[in-house]
Amino acid sequence: MDAVVWVVLGVVLAVAEIFTTTLFLIMFAAGAFAAAAAAALGAPTALQALIFTLVSALSVAVVRPVIRRHARSALESGEQAFGVEALEGATALVLEPVDAERGLVKIDGELWSARSYDVTRSYAAGERVQVIKVRGATALVWQDDISTPGELPEGKR
């Protein structure tokens, strides 16, 4: 019976990881599956808990940093960007005024909701802007003449 409880806990943690994508809960799921194996072999409950704790802690301390190091973005690793990463740095056309609250831009023929990267700035329809960052389905944009050294947003110099 103990093995079933550990397997259920492991599955719940693994499913929860799908929604968080932090590579944290999956380490505890691995610990739960290791404890389930110990329970199936007849280990006492105290040993099962110890195995769960040790495997989880070792996974977080050793495996997670390795996975995160290999899961760097394409821009960080120098590889060809794809998906929303490829949009960062692209030029967009403002279709509806963009400010800190709302806006609509066209990026490579696709419509995107947009917000101003600098909350004090707004852009009128017809202006060209540059995509600084994509958060979810919203492009954070900045003025298109971004090559002017004194005008770069913080962190993009």
Automatic annotation (TrEMBL):
GO-annotated biological processes: proteolysis
One Pfam match: NfeD
Gene Ontology cellular component terms for the protein in this record: plasma membrane
Keywords for the protein's UniProt record, in alphabetical order: Hydrolase, Membrane, Protease, Transmembrane, Transmembrane helix
Its membrane topology: Multi-pass membrane protein
Keyword DNA-binding: no
Locations listed in the record: Membrane
Any one GO molecular-function label of the UniProt entry: peptidase activity
Residue ranges of every copy of the NfeD-like C-terminal domain listed in the record: 84-142
Source superkingdom: Bacteria
Principal location listed in the UniProt entry: membrane
Transmembrane segments: 7-40, 46-67
Name of the protein this chain belongs to: Activity regulator of membrane protease YbbK
